[in-house]
Amino acid sequence: MGDPEVLEMVMEEERRYRRDSSFVLEMSESSSNRETSCLLSEAREFDKDKQSKDSIFFRDGIRQIDFVLSYVDDIKKEADLKIVRRRNFEENLRKTGLELEIEDKRNSEDGRTYFVKIHAPWEVLVTYAEVLGMKKPIKENDIPRPKKAPFNFILGPLKLPKNVMHPKPEYFTVQFTRHRQELFLIEDKSSFFPSSARNRIVYYILSRCPFGIEDGKKKFGIERLLTSHAYSSAYPLHDGQYWKPSEPPNPTNERYILFQNWARFSYFYKEQPFDLIKNYFGEKIGMYFVFLGFYTEMLVLAAIVGLACFCYGLFSMHTSTASVEVCDPEIGGQIIMCPLCDLLCDFWRLNSTCLSSKVSHLFDNESTVFFAIFMGIWVTLFLEFWKQHQARLEYEWDLVNFEEEQQQLQLRPEFEAMCKKRKLNPVTQELEPHMPLKNRVPWYFLSGATVTLWMSLVIACLVAVIVYRLSVFATFSRFMESVASLKHVKSFLTPQIATALSGSCLNFIVILILNFFYEKISAWITKMEIPRTYQEYESSLTLKMFLFQFVNFYSSCFYLAFFKGKFVGYPGKYTYLFGVWRNEECDPGGCLIELTTQMTIIMTGKQIFGNIQEAIYPLALNWWRRRKARTNSEKLYSRWEQDHDLETFGSLGLFYEYLETVIQFGFVTLFVASFPLAPVLALLNNIIEIRVDAWKLTTQYRRPVASKAHSIGVWQDILHAMAVLSVASNAFTVAFTSDIIPRLVYSYAYSTDPSDPLRGYVNNSLSIFLIADLPNATAPLDIRDFSTCSTLCF
């Protein structure tokens, strides 16, 4: 395969950016010389012990390593095919201008891994910087930064040093063009393109470089080679060790600076160095941390107001008229309540729910309505302020018009490989891969059916948990009545509370199990849809995963908030689930306390489990990988080998971080009227989450390939939808689940005591039923000396 043919295949998309054909001639004339010099450099004798273990350069100590590929000898029958693919791929990489240096397996720590180190010379960098529309400085910005506010010294302990927050001067930038290099501030060619830009350029080439024609189809891209195991990994290098600064000739170790000022847990109260994060990891990861930081800052106000509402309920729970009447032996102790289940459940006295009544007031009081209104305003302001902050960041990071210039052009190699036809683009007037809609419709139907099936499975699991609660309630009641040693426990652990706690824990376990399958199913059906671009792939996956997670995490909360206790019936004519189990009743204090319990267990459990998993999982894998690799301790553990033994962040690593944050946002907004401490828990979690994410990115993961993003993408639309839904759900929670409206109605319409409008409310909320009218199939077996029992008014 000759040079012109390879260039035609690799540079097909880039030709539209070229103003003349001089680059093709230059690359064609010089590619053979570069390949020869690279082969000579590989053939030279090399003593690995003479090179620093932290070196990020070729053996000559001059050419910087921009990317690393690794592979292991394969003794299987596909070995020959993999060798041919690697040879063709590396040959084509050299013909595009990249320089390669191969480390033999005898120089590796495990004695069986080959490393292909890649360097992008200046002419390749400038060419693809123009192709990718990179903006580079033309002159320094002489506009001074804003001066410190008069009272900025108060926030001094929260600030980071200026050289960390703003590591580089501000510049006026324009889109780079290789034909007018004299216009740009090129003081040093080795540092003009930072390492993040270099690895982004190299990955762009790797993802489009061909490695042969098989079965009549052109095969290309490093992702396909990784999938077929021709290569085992592909990654850019970290700047150096995270626990010590770099030594010459290595450039400044930004990884060390990030670890010292960002990833340490002792700096949890400090601001984040967003510019440095962007420079090292790329704009896409930087945008995530900006969003997470902004969201956390906005949570401070919501947490303060929520904590104030909780304190109000805490201080007033012992003086609440309703709780006092329930706990009073002369009032609540004299009210006999009808059995909560058939046959096995006995009559009970209202004052047995004294503690649950007080706890219910803790979360269901006069401040509930205020906090629901406040959170409706907060979520609106949060989204509007974030849009403003995002627009400012888009300008500061040179991301204006990025999507129009770049993102739509990124076709997925899998899409191109599946396309047998090409279609003329009316805008660019070039042939592009095209797949007719009729070829994709069957997969869309399969995707929709799969999503519907698994969402139905969630509902089925919810029904199973409800059946569990119905079936064990009688068991709890009988067990606690019969065991004498539990008599003192009944004062704070009633059958209702025991059932609610066990049901919530069981539901949380089911949620974790289903989530594991959701991730696999969502990725599979999205892949089968054959999305055209990476943006389409991520948007489709995001929608599916969010729908699954939404139904999985919130379905039980919707049931407790809007359905439980609404279809119970009345003594003598109860309603039954499947004709077997009698529907659940709410506690006399309302179902809000059960909703609060459910949210507390699921939200807290998810956050604790998530943080432990994020920290322990990569740490354990890296330890095991390093333990297996170090077979010969006398050999030097090189920079590329150290990074090779780290865990891969993956193209969807950021996706799961956003998903976790959005699900938490739902807990904070959708049912916050029932749980004012939700913003407090979210705030504490996010403070830890920021440092956990920073720690694992700087210490436990390979360096991700830098990529651009001008916003948080489809997640912003999801947040807007959840904000609208949260206003309605909180309004319905106050109207149908909270007891505040019936209390207000009684106070203004039925109360006869002006000094205490709620006096008599508890008795007024109950209805009387003759025990003699209870059907034999529902009445307790034991005979009692009272003739009536009370039940809630429905």
Question: Could you explain the architecture of this structure?
Answer:
It is a multi-pass membrane protein. This is Anoctamin. It comes from Pipistrellus nathusii (Nathusius' pipistrelle). Its main location: membrane. It is found in: Cell membrane; Membrane. By secondary structure, this protein is an alpha+beta fold. The protein has two domains: about 5-135 and about 175-235, no CATH class; about 270-420 and about 430-480 and about 490-750, no CATH class. The protein is built from 26 helices and 18 strands. It has a four-stranded antiparallel β-sheet with strand order 2-3-1-8. Strands 4-5 form a two-stranded antiparallel sheet. Strand 11 and strand 12 form a beta hairpin. Helix 11 packs antiparallel against helix 23 (about 680-700), helix 17 (about 435-480) runs antiparallel to helix 18 and helix 18 (about 495-530) runs antiparallel to helix 19 (about 535-560). It is elongated and about 100 Å long. Mean pLDDT is about 80; it is low at about 1-45, about 405-410, about 485-490 and about 630-635.
Mean pLDDT: 80
> Low-confidence parts lasting 5 or more residues at pLDDT below 50?
1-46, 404-408, 484-491, 631-635
User: What is the assembly state of the chains in this entry?
Assistant: single chain
Largest sheet: 4 strands, antiparallel
Outline the secondary-structure elements.
Elements: H1 3-10, H2 22-43, E1 67-72, H3 79-95, E2 99-103, E3 113-119, H4 122-131, E4 135-140, H5 162-165, E5 171-175, H6 189-192, H7 195-206, E6 210-214, E7 217-220, H8 222-227, E8 233-235, H9 254-263, H10 274-281, H11 283-316, H12 321-327, E9 336-337, E10 348-349, H13 354-363, H14 366-396, H15 402-405, H16 413-418, E11 421-424, E12 431-434, H17 437-482, H18 495-528, H19 534-562, E13 569-570, E14 573-574, E15 576-577, E16 581-582, H20 592-629, H21 639-644, H22 653-669, H23 678-700, H24 714-737, H25 740-750, H26 761-764, E17 766-770, E18 788-792
Antiparallel strand pairs: 1-3, 1-8, 2-3, 4-5, 6-7, 9-10, 11-12, 13-14, 15-16, 17-18
